[in-house]
Amino acid sequence: MRFSILGPLNITDKGRPVPLGSVTQRALLGYLLLHANTVVATSRLLQALWREEPPPTARKIVQNAISGLRRTLAEPDGDRSKLLVTHAPGYVLRADPATIDNCEFQELARTGRAALAAGQWDEADRHLRQALALWKGPALADLVEDGYDWPELTALQNARHSVLENRMDAALAAGRHLDVIGELEAVVSTDPLRERLCRQLMLALYRSGRQAEALRAFRRTRAALVEQLGLDPGPELRELERAILDHDPSLVSGGTAIRMASRGTTAPPPPGGAETAEPSAPAAAPGTPPDTAAGPGRTAGGSPDRPEDEHKRVTAVFVRVDTSDCSVPPEVLDRLLQQVRSTVRQQTCLYGGRNHGSMGPVILSLFGTAQTQEDDVLRAVRMALDVAAYAEQGVRLRVAVSSGDALVLRAPATEADDEPVDVAGRFMETGLGLLLEAAPGVVRVCDTTRQACAEHFGFATTGARPGGHDVTVALRPALASRTHLPFVQRDRELEQLRWWVEEVRRSRRPHLVTVLGVAGIGKSRLMHELRRDVTGRPGMGCLVGCNRALGPKEPYTALAGVVRAYLGTKDDDPAPEQNGRLDAAVTDLVGTGPISAQLADALRPLLCAATGDEPGRHALADPERRQAVFTAWRRFVEELAVREPLLIILEDLHRTDDALLEFVGDLTENVGSLPLLVVVTARPELVNRSPYWASGRRNATTMSLEPLSRTGIEALLSSVARPGSGAHGAESYATLTEQSGGNPLFALEYARTLDGAADDDPPRSACVRPRRSGAEPPVPPRVHGIISARLDTLPAAEKSLLYDASLFGSPFYELELAALSDRDPEEIQECLRSLERREFLQRCRLGPELGSVEYDFVHKLVGAVAYSRMSHARRAEKHRRAAQWLADHSNRPLTLLVHHCRQAVGHTRDANLSVKDISAHVCDILIGAGQQAKRRRVPGAARYCYRSALEFCATGDPRWEVLRRRLYEDAKSPV
């Protein structure tokens, strides 16, 4: 049996839940589990169950409850006294600590703290993360709801907070400040009195270049301490504030968070710091490509926990300040330039980009360098349009946008900052050329940018330079779900949603349905069909909101969309018209009076987006304003549901922040008994977010959309086939069906790319080819962007392992991955399990060796895109390592060995590096493999290795003659 108390009380026996009895039995078992393997006196049990006033029959009730628990916990052999034992002066629950999640939590926490004290940041982060993952909610949450409030539960919750703080220290010391900001902001907003968490948040924000937000976090915590406790912040928090104001260089040190974690303690220095000896690197094998040419500290293998140089699709926004219409002194000009730079920085942050710097009047912003978003190009163009409208004191801006493939160069491993330090790509030169042609106040874009935004903007092709286009007008994009196409193989899911519509209408009780599915699987189309079905029936309202998620500038468009759908307005309607309709609608719902004005004023920020007090922050970033809007929106929905049963559809909720996720998750719990059905669509990444509501909610259901079958994809492709076109023949259908992996969007994008059915289709050169063979069709840019964005949601260690797996294709073994890096096998297994949970990988079957497992990509395109993002030098080194490992394992196919040898040499050549050393090295590998085959008396395999080695052996090399002689002798000898 396994006992779980870190959340609702739960017992499982061989994976099956064990039903528990009355509340008294559950409380008794929960208290004994809190003191497992310890004698608990009966008097303590009575006090725990009834506090100070136990009933006269309390001891009899406890005895009966103990008897019931023994029957529940009885082993198959009938021994009921094995787990729950009577031991004077009470009882003891004897259980293996490994079967109790609390004991496992405590052990992982101890291991993590020990690693933290030893300066092993990655090891500490791994153990502490595992410990926190055991929690499924507040400890014994179901008993707490029944009124039990034991001191042990408070202590356990404090231990959870302590582990979280230790994990944040480990992550900050390892330089992963960007990864923890979101989690820290959510925790600090919930518990603002924990100064240690506030220090960690301030440090993470400062290291991410968000100094103003770090100081704002300090002010919020100070205000909470003064208001609730009448105390000032502690000395460490005040010292950190002063250090931020002074830009203290020590704040960028990886070990700062550890040294400030607790008063009076000193932690070991961080790895790679001045006080730690740098371990000597292993000697490179002959032929290893010098990947360090990318910069000092970079290696082909790289640290698995740090981002490495990558090929990415990047969009650059070039801004040039034009002061030809104003004549001012240099000091005034400098102030004008500073104002423009500040404006560009603010707009870049609002749309989720990164400021790359400036030189004189030219300012550069980049999108897609740190974390790829599938709408990076759209974000960049909208930001460029906002910037181009700037006109103050005679200053006009010329703006150009260019997109393309780039090598994103990261900081050396000795630096604490994980931010990109530079990008390299031809599109940068293109962008500079477009900037020279751009007219003031006009945004000029390249061909690639125009193709990516053709559905959203109008363009005019002007200028002497070919490939330049001016953005003329913003268009309303076509419906993403492609409703003109047949509705294929989703009837079962639609019927389930129809059932919930009728159930909510009948029971008049709220319910939340979450529809999960990867990008392009058909969530939006399913919602379109549901909406059409519901709106065609009388007596049921339907409102839809979709989250566009174009950065913090538009944080809650899903909620705004619901309000606008009821008002009948659009987001680009004039503000007076939207305000007038809002006032009229609210008055119609609640009547006149103070409540009407309060409700309308609270909803107005949703319709008329405003910028907050600080640069780069939306008005709703303030927790008080946000909570007021949430409360008003819930009241608005309640008033609608009182009038008639209501269906609300919120799409793409995985793009929202944790505050909105928590609000939506609690919505059906807080609206009371109203006929309200909330249907949410999101991608599978949502389940990894802490506010996710799938478990432990009574009025919640989750359904997942699976890939379409081969027949479904073929039916979909048949509907878009052009008459008389041979591109969609039987062979093309088979290829597209296999490549799409059952994803309808992927299949349609492949069809458009190969057939060129639309005028704005990208040329084949714009598509990323997954492999060198050319036998497979290229990956369409849109598909590549979707998968690339999903890859960037992974932690650095898991993404690095996925890159390694892409070298082997499908399937592969965990033993093969160990050959490509110096990671511990247990760490590799943990990453593989995590990638399996995130639906990147799947297990095929057990491997040939004891304990080995064979893995495959859930979608083969994931491996293709992951492979394409590695630099050529890194691919060459990985292929060399793979070849060396395969040569030492004679049970692997020789064709695979030769493949990796060829790839190692080919990618070294593509990296514009000398192939002399790597060719000699792979030649030695193949000769050694041939000699092993000859010793095993497999002459055919030996000849194959020798012939392949000749490919990499120069004619003047002495080994060339040796190989020719061996091949001649083997041909003469009998087999």
UniProtKB/TrEMBL annotation:
<dbReference type="InterPro" id="IPR011990">
    <property type="entry name" value="TPR-like_helical_dom_sf"/>
</dbReference>
<dbReference type="InterPro" id="IPR051677">
    <property type="entry name" value="AfsR-DnrI-RedD_regulator"/>
</dbReference>
<feature type="DNA-binding region" description="OmpR/PhoB-type">
    <location>
        <begin position="1"/>
        <end position="95"/>
    </location>
</feature>
<feature type="domain" description="OmpR/PhoB-type">
    <location>
        <begin position="1"/>
        <end position="95"/>
    </location>
</feature>
<dbReference type="InterPro" id="IPR001867">
    <property type="entry name" value="OmpR/PhoB-type_DNA-bd"/>
</dbReference>
<comment type="similarity">
    <text>Belongs to the AfsR/DnrI/RedD regulatory family.</text>
</comment>
<protein>
    <recommendedName>
        <fullName>OmpR/PhoB-type domain-containing protein</fullName>
    </recommendedName>
</protein>
<feature type="domain" description="Guanylate cyclase">
    <location>
        <begin position="318"/>
        <end position="428"/>
    </location>
</feature>
<keyword id="KW-0805">Transcription regulation</keyword>
<dbReference type="InterPro" id="IPR016032">
    <property type="entry name" value="Sig_transdc_resp-reg_C-effctor"/>
</dbReference>
<dbReference type="InterPro" id="IPR005158">
    <property type="entry name" value="BTAD"/>
</dbReference>
<feature type="region of interest" description="Disordered">
    <location>
        <begin position="757"/>
        <end position="781"/>
    </location>
</feature>
<dbReference type="InterPro" id="IPR041664">
    <property type="entry name" value="AAA_16"/>
</dbReference>
<dbReference type="InterPro" id="IPR027417">
    <property type="entry name" value="P-loop_NTPase"/>
</dbReference>
<feature type="compositionally biased region" description="Low complexity">
    <location>
        <begin position="273"/>
        <end position="304"/>
    </location>
</feature>
<dbReference type="Pfam" id="PF13191">
    <property type="entry name" value="AAA_16"/>
</dbReference>
<dbReference type="InterPro" id="IPR001054">
    <property type="entry name" value="A/G_cyclase"/>
</dbReference>
<dbReference type="InterPro" id="IPR029787">
    <property type="entry name" value="Nucleotide_cyclase"/>
</dbReference>
<dbReference type="Pfam" id="PF00486">
    <property type="entry name" value="Trans_reg_C"/>
</dbReference>
<feature type="region of interest" description="Disordered">
    <location>
        <begin position="261"/>
        <end position="310"/>
    </location>
</feature>
<dbReference type="Pfam" id="PF03704">
    <property type="entry name" value="BTAD"/>
</dbReference>
<keyword id="KW-0804">Transcription</keyword>
<keyword id="KW-0238">DNA-binding</keyword>
<dbReference type="InterPro" id="IPR036388">
    <property type="entry name" value="WH-like_DNA-bd_sf"/>
</dbReference>
<keyword id="KW-0902">Two-component regulatory system</keyword>
